[in-house]
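Record type: monomer structure entry
Structure origin: computed from sequence
Chain ID: A
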Amino acid sequence: MRETRSFFPMDRILDFEYMSNYGTRIIPLNITLTDLISKVAKEYGESSIKTVVVKRRYEHKEKNVLDSLARSKRKLLYFKGDFQPKYYKQYTEKKTLQVRKYIRFSKLVRVLGTKIAATLGNFNAIYVPFLSEKYAYTSPHEYYEKLTKSGKYPQGSRLYVATEPKANNTWFSVIRQNYDTIFWKDLPKKLSDQWRLLFPSSQLRRDMIGILEQVILSCADNYRSNEVSYFSEFVEFMRNTLPESLPELYDVR
């Protein structure tokens, strides 16, 4: 692997060996996309690469992508642009569950996440997905009332709060007043140091906080999800499949 802080192999994030059980072998290339294109072009010629320029997000549906793969005899099919297919509209619920079954975070992420969860003791967790009070889907007082009415979040109990790093802290004032709240920035330094070793680049660390928080939220005694969030949906999936999604959890708690 090249010595650089700007990229890393995806098998630091995802469990490629586990995911290969779905029937398709996944190999970490450990090089940048630019280097990969140059390497393929040098070895097989420029004609071995087909570049599909994506001008609009969600432009390519699942069938379009699969048809392109089936028809192409090129060594590399490169979708260039803001490629983000609407999988949630193209996949049936049954197919989505089949695919998700074989998605799992790497052991590095799982171990660190479960270690952090273990240091929190007994805790509940919530996920509030907004960048500022302007975009909050409910008022903080309404949100607090919903927590208390559920009977699962007693006043004074420990509550891990996952949210965007730039979220407006004033929104959480009522939550802070009534719970022993813990945010990402409140975690022990020795654990954040391990995160720093895993992702040397500060930008990568910021981008990947959400991944580690998904593991933490999965370990909570109770978790209040967000019904319109795919981030939260995957947490729910992990919580419902803990033996497969987080086997390490049973070693630390």
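Annotation 1: Confidence is low (pLDDT under 50) at residues 1-5, 85-91.
Annotation 2: The first strand starts at residue 49 and ends at 54.
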